[in-house]
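Entry type: protein chain
Record version: 2
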Amino acid sequence: VQLQASGGGLVQPGGSLRLSCAAPGVNFENSWMYWLRQAPGKELEWVSRISSDGRSINYVDSVKGRFTISRYFATKTLYLQMDNLKSEDTALYYCALGNKWGWSLKGQGTQVTVSS
């Protein structure tokens, strides 16, 4: 497994989760990293991305101000801190590797369920 997301679970609305993605076998240092998600019955969408040097970060409008992406080069780990979670954030979350034009390699997902 080249990309393995973890940290998902069941959380109440307004709660928080921190997703992690281990990327030991990929070119982590020189790749843009993405978080993607797919909700039931919906298409896969990118949620956030971070440049290879960590200086450029983007979020989809629906998570701005609530989610924070980060990367730790020493352990080749990507993170997604998710705060003030809403029911519409319920989805299978994936980490992916790519470049500034898009992602190309997606790993195994972790389920996030926001429900009371």
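Comment: DSSP finds no helices and eleven strands in the chain.
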